[in-house]
Amino acid sequence: MFRAKRVMPFLFQDWFLGENHCMHATFAGKRIVVGVTGSIAAFKVAGWVSALAREEARVAVIMTESAARFVAPLTFAALSGERVHPSLFAEEDAETIPHIQLAREADLVVIAPATAHTIARLAHGLADDLLACTVLATRAPVLVCPAMNAQMYGHPSVQENIEKLKKFGYQVLIPECGRMACREEGAGRLPEWEPAREVMLRILAVPDLAGEKILITAGPTREPLDPARFLSNRSSGKMGYSLARTARRRGADVTLISGPTVLACPPDVCCVRVETAAEMGEAVLARCHGASVIVKAAAVSDFRPVARSAEKVKKEQADLHLPLEQTIDILKELGQMKKEAGFLLVGFAAESRDHAAEGERKLKVKNLDLIAINDIGSANTGFEADTNQVTLLDHDGVISLPLVSKERTADLIWDHVVMMLKKKGATAESVGRSR
Questions:
Q1: Average pLDDT, the chain
Q2: What pLDDT, in 10s, does the model give residues 47-76?
Q3: Residue 93: which pLDDT band, with cuts at 50, 70 and 90?
Q4: Helices 193-204 & 238-249, crossing angle to 10 degrees?
Q5: Amino acid 311: pLDDT
Q6: Is residue 318 left, alpha or beta, with left meaning phi > 0 and alpha meaning psi from -120 to 50?
Q7: Residue 290 gets which letter from DSSP?
Q8: Do 121 and 252 lie in a common domain?
Q9: Per the structure, how many domains does the chain have?
Q10: Are 197 and 210 contained in the same domain?
Q11: Is 312 domain-assigned?
Q12: What is the 3-state secondary structure of 211-243?
């Protein structure tokens, strides 16, 4: 029997939303040391530093002598809000031993762009400039972002040096293919900020979902009336895609089943594209048995036309009465299967009124483990918004999350799912011992 709703105690909510959970999906407060070397791609890294500063990272920029020939140190100082570190023997840093201080403070060292010369220096353990010394002295993870002419990048010595860096435990951001400043085409372009950001956040994240196979649905579905028209809803898919992106960062094996959206598939996520509710149901039910967690964030159409016209219906010939029938209730089907299949089931409820009551009803009727309820009537939390404010409801109580970005909301939801998985594992272990 469903237990009465219980609001989580205030102090526990503080812990749940507090500093212990700020390591996910955020650069806020992190010390990022950015090493800029002598490549034309240095101008791109100025944008990276600006983006990191906007996300409240503490950015320290080390520039090699050749890097300063491409972009002035003043540019990076203005964008980071901190002075640039140009030399191992700068007089203003004499008393601090800069390579040791920077190495100790760093949460992450990013070398971008990394030239062939810098890669060779790091591969052979040289310590002849500030950047190389800092890398040797740090215990922080190191991300190397190669950028150079395609022929240089493909040279066996460069590739051998990159492999050495990987053996040292450094992460390497694979360059993109395309046209470069030298007017040649090929691999060697420094990636744009978004893929670089994703890799950095994955390095910084705690892999507390490692080993979990997570199935997520996102976006709307479309129910065709004729070849030109369809019934659908206003879902953008942003919440579901944020859930997929952040789960992958935290180490999960993620499959995303998506209705029609303009969003790109998150990196290293298996994406399955569908259009109708029936197609989404088929895709979900075919993959659900291998999942440990299923999150139904998609806004699946509740109704579809009884009949679909094979030809476009002319306005003059249209019947203004549109008979409808219900589509498959995927969430309810999963609720009936979850005990046998063994997955944790998370639903979403997009409501315009009676939010708590509707959430509580769906939690019980659809046999969910957790439901996230959000108000679609608000401009900041409804469809297409970049922010969200959800209430989490499970069989133990209620948690009201703050108004934050959908990416941050996704991480807070995963924090709760991780707690539930630990509890489920502890319960299963206890039952096993009692037998």
A1: 89
A2: 999 999 999 999 999 999 999 999 999 999
A3: low
A4: 50
A5: 87
A6: beta
A7: G
A8: no
A9: 2
A10: no
A11: no
A12: CCEEEEEECECCEECCCCCEECCCCCCHHHHHH
Determine the average pLDDT of the residues in 22-31. Answer: 75
pLDDT in tens, 156-176: 999 999 999 999 999 999 999
Cα separation, 431 vs 429, whole angstroms: 5
395 and 247 fall within a common domain: yes
Do both 44 and 62 map to the same domain? yes
Q: Domain check: are 362 and 332 in the same one?
A: yes
Q: Any idea what the CATH number is for the domain that residue 278 is in?
A: 3.40.50.10300
Q: Choose the final residue of a domain: 157, 179, 203.
A: 203
0.70 exceeded by pTM: yes
Helix axes 116-123, 130-137, angle to 10 degrees: 40
Residue 50 belongs to some domain of the structure? yes
Long-range contacts of 66-69 (CB under 8 A, 24+ apart): 66/37, 66/38, 66/115, 67/36, 67/37, 67/38, 67/39, 67/42, 69/38
Q: Give the residue numbers annotated as catalytic, written as ranges.
A: 182
Q: Which two tokens stand for residue 64?
A: 């090699």
Domain shared by 47 and 123, yes or no: yes
- Helix or strand run (H / E) with residue 301: none
Domain boundary residue, one of 203, 237, 257: 203
Q: Which pLDDT value is given to residue 433?
A: 56
> Cα angle at 425 between 423 and 428, to 5 degrees?
110
Residue with tokens 């950047």: 131
Burial 341-360 (b: 16+ CB within 10 A, else e): eebbbbbbbbbeeebeebbb
Residue span of the structural domain in which 112 resides: 26-203
Question: What is each CA distance from 257 to 204, 265, 286, in whole angstroms?
Answer: 27, 10, 11
| One-character DSSP codes across 131-159 | HHHHHHH--S-EEEEE---HHHHHSHHHH
Q: Is residue 171 helix, strand or coil?
A: strand
Condensed to tens digits (0 to 9), the pLDDT of residues 261-313 reads 999 999 999 999 999 999 999 999 999 999 999 999 999 999 999 998 888 88
Do 245 and 151 share a structural domain?
A: no
- The tokens of 389 are what? 């404010």
CATH assignment of the domain containing 54: 3.40.50.1950
Q: Are 297 and 370 in contact (CB under 8 A)?
A: no
CA distances in angstroms from 81 to 45, 52, 54, 75, 84, listed in the order given: 15, 11, 11, 10, 9
In a domain, 277, yes or no: yes
Instruction: Name the DSSP class of 264.
Output: P
Note whether residue 143 is domain-resident.
yes
Residue entry with tokens 């694979």: 174
Question: Do 135 and 212 reside in the same domain of the chain?
Answer: no
- Rounded-to-integer distance, Cα 31 and Cα 87, Å: 19
